[in-house]
Amino acid sequence: MSFNALGLAPELLRAVSEEGYEHPTPIQQETIPLALAGRDLVGSAQTGTGKTAAFLLPILQRLAAERRPHTLRALILVPTRELAEQVLQSSRAYGRHLSVTATAIYGGVGMEPQTRALSRGVDIVVATPGRLLDHMERGHLDYTQLEVLVLDEADRMLDMGFAPDVRRILAALPEERQTMLFSATISVEVDALARQALSGH
């Protein structure tokens, strides 16, 4: 199978080709058509299987199809600052031929540059739970137009003790949204988190 068979826009196919991707990985083959159709999903995927593209490509296509500049429409929660930066760089690479903006929010660095980026308006926010809550408590985020939530490496987020933070974030989001959860393992705890994330919509 080629990426052409997945229903992706020409701008994304061009970017994927420029990244040197020739054939979608199994998780991409399974996830991208469902995500493009707006379906909620839970995926079991190890790091290195191409899951970042599996959720980012459909998000970029969705946001580019109906432009609402400077409006937060997609939130991607990740466990570490390293993964936040990686997802941010991937979103810029895959979206290089689209006018979709993204920023990363994580701890260990000053809040002011992140606050400025949020105040300018952004389409996609990639964030670690703790720092995202810091910004939420200061009123820096408006979720009223949010359409897509991704929980990436959910098992690691739970292992790192982020469950209470993630649940607080979930409670602040619109119920009507597309939700995608990815985890290397689907434990009882991850399953419970998935049920909460997917409930009510």
Mean residue pLDDT: 94
Shape designation:
globular
- Put simply, the count of helices is 9
Q: Could you name the ranges where pLDDT drops below 50 across 5 or more consecutive residues?
A: none
Mind describing the biggest β-sheet?
6 strands, parallel
User: What is the rounded distance between the termini?
Assistant: 32 Å
User: How much of the sequence is in beta strands?
Assistant: 5-15%
Characterize the structure shown.
It is built from nine helices and six strands. The chain is an alpha/beta fold. A six-stranded parallel sheet has the order 1-6-5-2-4-3, sandwiched between helices. The N and C termini lie far apart (32 Å). The mean pLDDT is 94.
Descriptive key words:
6-stranded parallel β-sheet; 201 residues; alpha/beta; 13% strand; 9 helices
Helix and strand layout, with pairings?
Elements: H1 10-18, H2 26-36, E1 41-44, H3 51-65, E2 74-77, H4 81-94, E3 102-105, H5 112-120, E4 124-127, H6 129-137, E5 148-151, H7 154-159, H8 163-172, E6 178-183, H9 188-198
Parallel strand pairs: 1-6, 2-4, 2-5, 3-4, 5-6
Helix pairs in contact: 2-3, 3-4, 6-8
